[in-house]
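COURSE: Structural Biology Practicum
ASSIGNMENT: Worksheet 4, Part C
STUDENT ID: 0417
INSTRUCTIONS: Below are two proteins. For each, the amino acid sequence is given first, followed by its structure token string. Answer the questions at the end about the second protein only.

PROTEIN I
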Amino acid sequence: MPTRRSFLSSSAAALAAAAVSNPARAAGGKLMIGLDHFAVRATGWKAPQLIDYAASQKLDCLFLSELGPFESFEDDYLKKLKAQADAAGLKLYTGGMSICRTSRRFKPEQGTPEEYLALLIRIAKMCGSPIARCVLGDASDRAADGGIDRHIEECVKALRAVKNRCETEGVRISIENHAGDMRSDELKGLIEAAGKGHVGANIDPGNATWAMEDPLQHLEALGPYVNCSSVRDSMVWEDEKGAVVQWTAIGEGIVDFKQYARRFAELAPGAPLNIETISGFAKPISFLNPDYMKPYPKVTDAGLAGFKALAKRGHKIETFKAPDGPGKKEAEIAYQKAQFEKSVKWLRENV
């Protein structure tokens, strides 16, 4: 019969073994899993409905990553959202879009970049979000006059201007590598130039593949700067022009997401893993075409090696298109919810 001492010893050994095999949980106790609301965008749900859905999935957090789900920016409304989330046991994360006045994604009607950032910071503060997410733009900005460096400079100006506001309100900015706009070295440089005390990264491994990076290498470069995330898996395969990327549910792509989650927890302890599945369509990445690579003048063969290795291991998969007709919207909603819920299940079973 085992003694109390031998039982405690064997239990401690088991816990230590579990920590080694699953450092994602060992690093911070629990890896927070959340919903980036854009994963279920076809629903058209507003913030209260998204809170209810996230609670029904027994998640840790909800990321309202854009302003669309908010029905008001008034304090009373935002306080009610926080109260609803608190009652459901959810932590809210919030954000918006472009803060770069030279990006095609920037909307002048939202005010100056500094005014827009002030709004995002206030919303985050009222909702209890530790971060306010924003973006530069998208890959098309790389081809504009001055290249991506010009846009990075504009973002740095705006972010430096709100440093005191961030520190006063206790909110950090979380700028995303968005739609192929920046590679990891570029986002890292932006954060360091703006001030890493109040600026971090909202890491997106799907968008990393659009910028021709291996998501695991991308994470290694940006991990210490990460304070939030919007994640999905990707399948990558070779074609005659270079490669093709199709985003997938987590566990259905080429990315080793067990390793990704482990390193995420180690490099960015306390940051949430928010699922933002955007599945079903393929994007050509024609890196063999010199014209395609012109907006990437600093990218070397070595800088493409990880992405090329993914493409060699991957394989073509089918796309998804909801059937036309009266049931199209319902089919899109069902597909998006299934992709998200499949990702949650995979993470819970494998991480």
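PROTEIN II
(use this one for the questions)
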Amino acid sequence: MTAAELTASRTGALRGRVRAPGDKSISHRALILGALATGETRIEGLLEGEDVLRTADAMRAFGATVEQLGDGRWRVVGEGGFSEPADVVDCGNSGTGVRLIMGAAAGFAISATFTGDESLRGRPMRRVLRPLGEMGATWTASAGDRLPLTLRGGGLRHIAYELPEPSAQVKSAVLLAGLHAEGGAEVIEPEATRDHTERMLRAFGARVEVTEQGHGRRIGLPGGQALTGTAVQVPGDPSSAAFPLVAALITPGSEVTVEGVLLNPLRTGLLETLREMGADLTFSNLREAGGEQVGDVTARHSALRGVTVPPERAPSMIDEYPILGVAAAFAEGPTVMRGLAELRVKESDRIALMAAGLAACGVGVEEEPEGLTVVGAARANHGVAGGARVTTHGDHRIAMSHLILGLASERPVAVDQPGMIATSFPGFVELMRGLGGAIGDEVRQAV
């Protein structure tokens, strides 16, 4: 029995202009809101990764017409609500997809059973189920708050829900449920999280009221609102753009431009942190598309230095900490990252896996319950050793991050289960090869 791997080897300068795949968060929301709306929604630039395709299938299961018109071009026709699915709704590996869909489905008097792959079935759902239950939805599961579970919705009442911890997924689930709750819904968040749901609800014709409260916000969605189909332009995903940009920063002689990147200020925490580390990043062609700030980002090889990342910045870059760990490995001095409890319950325990992978590649790292400190190796004649085979536990971001590390390490770095990369970044290997990156297939005899 064989197991496919990918191996990244030290390469020369990376150069070129590329376009990141469509933003995953916005892609999920475009499909879900299109299905909830009345009429036709046309989507351009949809991410066609496995996670988003599962959401497209789910919207069909709930009664919407969903069809692909071309590369990244999709059409959704909704009837203004969800009907009961005839079969189990399988969300694959997508935590975002299942949590948002459960919120949307809770607003209707239907029963739906949700499941996912092995990784998703191991991830807790109570953070979403708690507020949905307070609104009047009920659920049953055979394994605590884990999938598979059956949700029964309808007859929801108003809620003013204060998030116990920052979570755009929980906030979005409550707002989507609030569309069909008596009196709507309010969410109070202690720290501002990505606001794509609020922006897109407005694009579909809903009234959303946002009030700043210290570092956080109060979001109100009045009840009794109907959505109308619209056109959605999906910008490039900053979480995906981070991989070629960091690769350029750590590889001598490199200059890479990623075009059409989403620059929503609640999603640019990584870019802000990299600039604090001394990264040569420039922004051009700034514009607004679909209610979002978009632009081209150019990264040039830079001498990076370690920094302490403010914990309150975590919501704006929660998916980018693995690749930040790679940048930190090539910096001078320690980079301290805290406030990362959510990383323990992502597709994998990302704190543990990044610590293990970096350590195996010769990087100094200290794991904390809710944080990570990476001691950079940028000293005279002291680079990152590499030379490891990294276990990813099927986590796409862990895999891509270590492949980027391998492009600038002394010895090659291999990752297992590379097929999972397609969940968020189809074409990742081809894109990096096009820039000059040495990433190759390798098949080894499984132990």
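ANSWER KEY EXCERPT:
Q1: The chain has a mean pLDDT of 93.
Q2: The longest strand covers residues 280-289.
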